[in-house]
Amino acid sequence: MKITFHGAARAVTGSKHLITLTNGTQVLLDCGLFQGMGEVTDKLNGYFGFNPEKIDYMVLSHAHIDHVGLLPRLAKEGFDGNIYATAATMDLARILLMDSSKIQAQDAEYLSASGKSDDGDDALYNEDDVIKALGQFKVVDYNEEVEIDPRIRIMLTDAGHVIGSAAVHLTIIDDGKEYKITFSGDVGRYSDLLLKSPQTFPQADYIIMESTYGDSLHKDLEPVENRLLEIINNTCVIRGGKVVIPAFSVGRTQELLYALNSLELKHKLPDVAYYVDSPLSLQATTVIKNHPEVYNNGVKEVMKVDEDPFHFKGLKFIESVEESRALVDDPRPCVIISASGMADSGRVRHHIRNIITNQKNTILMVGYCEPKSLGGRLIAGQPVVEIFREEFTVAAEVLAVKSMSAHGDYEDLLHFLSCQDPAQVKKVFLVHGEYEVQQAFAKRIQEKGFASVEIPEYHQEFELE
C-alpha cells in the first residue's frame, strides 16, 4: 500500500493525499485549491498528479477551499465515486464551491475587460461541475464507523477547526494486513472563541499531521476584542479612515462578528458602520447558525442573553455587486470585512486597491497568509504591491491579529497527538506547513517519542510497511 502527497506538501494549500491499495483501489483525502502561490498557482491547480478517473473514494476533512476547492474539477475530469464528509461540511461545501465558480468567472471577466488577460484566464470549473460534485456527497456522523468498501472503514472525529471539520481515521485491510491511518485535517484550538475542542481519537499506525503553526504559540496575546476596539477607534474615529479586514467567509468572519457583538454587549462598540461584503459570508453565517451543536459552552452562555451572537447594531451584509461598488466609492469611515482571507481573490481586493495609498486607512490581517499572496506580501511589509496587475504604493497601515487563527499552535498540535502511544506509531507525515516550520515541529514531536517523521515533497510517494 502506498501514500502519495499531491498538495499541502511543504506548503499550506492544495491539500490532496492519495492512498493506493495493492489491488489498485484509491482513496483521496481532500481535494483542495492551491491559493496564494504566486505565478505558479494556476499551473498547480491545473495538474492533479494523478488520474481522477481512477479514484474510487473521497473523504473530506472540512470545507475550507484549500481542502475542498478542486472537487468540481476532479468530478469534471472523471471522478464519479462517493465523497464522504460531515453534514456541516457538505452544507458549507455547497455554498463555497458555488461561490468559487462565480469568483473565477468574475475575475476572468474583469481581467479580460480591462485588457490584462493573457489568454482568457479560463475558470477551473463552472456551476455545472459543482452541481455534479455535490451530488456525490455521502454524510457521515462524528464517531460513526462506516464501511465504504469491504476492505476500508472510515470514522470522523471533531477536529475543532471550523464547523463540520474532522480528523479522518481509516482502517484498511490490504494484502491480508490491517493498517490504521489518521489524517488530522486542520486541527483547531483548545480555547476557540466558538467551537468545541478537538476530540481524542483511536490509536493509529500512521498519522498525516498538519503543521501550519508548528513553531508558534497563540497564547498570551492581547484579547481579540481589545485589539479590534483599539484599531477601529484609531482608524475610524480618530483618523476618519476605513478598516478593511480580509477574512475567510467560513469561521474567521463569524469569529469577528462574535467579537464585535461582544463589544456591543459591553457597550464599547464604536459608533461607525460595519459591513460584511461577501454573499458567501452571509450564507456561511446562516449555515453556522443552523448547526448550534458545534458551539462551545461560552457561546451557549452568550446565547442565553443574545439569541444571535453574530449580529449587532450598525452591521449590514452586502450582497449585490452594485452595493459593493458603491461601498468601494463611499469615503465615510467604516469597517469592511470581506473575503478572501489571503486577499488574493474576491471583493476584498477592490477594497484594498481603493484604500491602500491613503495613510488614514488600515488593512487588518486576521489569519494565515501564504507569503506570495497579496496578504502575505502586505504582512511582510512590501512597500509596493501588485493588485489586478497594477502596482500600488502601500501607505495604509497594515496590522495583524495573530491570536485569531483557527489553526492550533504547537501546544494544541501536541495536545492533539497526546492521546497516541508514540511507540505504536510507525510514521508521522507532516503536511500543510511551510518547510522551516515543519522542521521545527518535527523536532518537537520526536522529543515526544514519535521516532519516525517525514516531511513529504510535492508528489512524493511512500510505501507503507
From TrEMBL:
Pfam families: Beta-Casp, Lactamase_B, RMMBL. InterPro entries: Beta_Casp, MBL, Metallo-B-lactamas, RibonucZ/Hydroxyglut_hydro, RMMBL. Residues 13-241 form the Metallo-beta-lactamase domain. Residues 253-378 form the Beta-Casp domain. One of its GO terms (molecular function) is RNA endonuclease activity. Transmembrane segments: none annotated. Keywords: Hydrolase. This is MBL fold hydrolase.
